[in-house]
From TrEMBL:
PROSITE patterns: SAICAR_SYNTHETASE_1, SAICAR_SYNTHETASE_2. InterPro entries: SAICAR_synt/ADE2_N, SAICAR_synt_PurC, SAICAR_synth, SAICAR_synthetase, SAICAR_synthetase_CS. It comes from Caryophanon tenue. Pathway: Purine metabolism; IMP biosynthesis via de novo pathway; 5-amino-1-(5-phospho-D-ribosyl)imidazole-4-carboxamide from 5-amino-1-(5-phospho-D-ribosyl)imidazole-4-carboxylate: step 1/2. GO terms for biological process: 'de novo' IMP biosynthetic process; cobalamin biosynthetic process. Residues 6-231 form the SAICAR synthetase/ADE2 N-terminal domain. This is Phosphoribosylaminoimidazole-succinocarboxamide synthase. The keyword Nucleotide-binding applies.
């Protein structure tokens, strides 16, 4: 499979066409960004780490019955995925209060929620990815009620698989963000990446942050903690 025309460049990845209409080539970049692109850095090795971690997680999800766009890893920083039209909704699942939820509702970071919750954010850089409700999704016309139900169900199903998977290796899955797309037949398919860029992961014993908050909050060396996650997932 060959890398064709560049179709899209995002903050962390580039997407290329291939000779197969249905398959895209993804290249993970070494760029780290936070706060809607206000904070930026190039971090050697980050692309490889996220490519490998995403590969391991999508493989584990597929083995557990969650379909996704993931096809296979090709090289340290490249993978093949199925072509989908991304639904402009970030689906965030939370087990423990942190980040914007703590700010918004006043829960101390680290407070266990009585049950996992699912939130939606409108994927729009110019608007700063605002929190939205199902009513907003309806009037924006960005997903049908049936699709939103699917996002909700799949979000919780992914949590039910990933939370114990991380717990087994001594890591608490605090929260994470998922993206979904529509395939050619209109099916909603899990897409994008799942990595320490898109999850909050805390060492269950020490509470050490093993995710992008290390970069957002200047807490240390990002690649060191991403390597810890890769190793714990059996990837090293
Ligand atoms: O910032 P907030 O607390 O809402 O983030 C919730 C979760 O979603 C975190 O794991 C964060 O890394 C992830 N997220 C993301 N991309 C965004 C916003 C949040 O991966 N644009």
């Amino acid at each position: 499979m060959n890398k064709g025309q560049l179709l899209y460049e995002g903050k962390a990845k580039r997407l290329y066409a291939t000779e197969d209409e249905q398959i895209l080539f993804v290249e993970y970049k070494d760029s780290a960004t936070a706060f809607n692109g206000e904070k930026k850095a190039e971090i050697d090795g980050k692309g490889n780490l996220n490519n490998k971690i995403t590969t391991l997680i999508f493989e584990k999800l597929q083995a557990a019955g969650i379909a996704s766009h993931f096809v296979k890893q090709l090289s340290p920083n490249e993978q093949l995925v199925r072509r989908v039209d991304i639904i402009p909704i970030e689906v965030v699942v939370r087990n423990i209060a942190a980040g914007s939820l703590s700010k918004r509702l006043g829960f101390d970071e680290g407070t266990a929620l009585p049950r996992p919750i699912v939130e939606y954010y409108y994927k729009d850089d110019a608007l700063g990815d605002p929190h939205i409700t199902t009513e907003h999704i309806d009037v924006l016309g960005i997903a049908t009620a049936t699709e939103v139900e699917e996002l909700y169900k799949q979000g919780l199903a992914v949590n039910d698989i990933l939370r114990p998977l991380f717990a087994e290796v001594g890591v608490e899955l605090i929260d994470f963000k998922l993206e979904f797309g529509r395939d050619g037949a209109g099916n909603v398919l899990l897409a994008d990446e799942i990595s320490p860029d898109t999850c909050r992961l805390w060492d269950a014993t020490t509470g050490q942050k093993l995710d992008k908050d290390v970069f957002r909050r200047d807490l240390g060396n990002l690649t060191e903690v991403y390597e810890i996650i890769l190793e714990k997932l059996g990837g090293k």
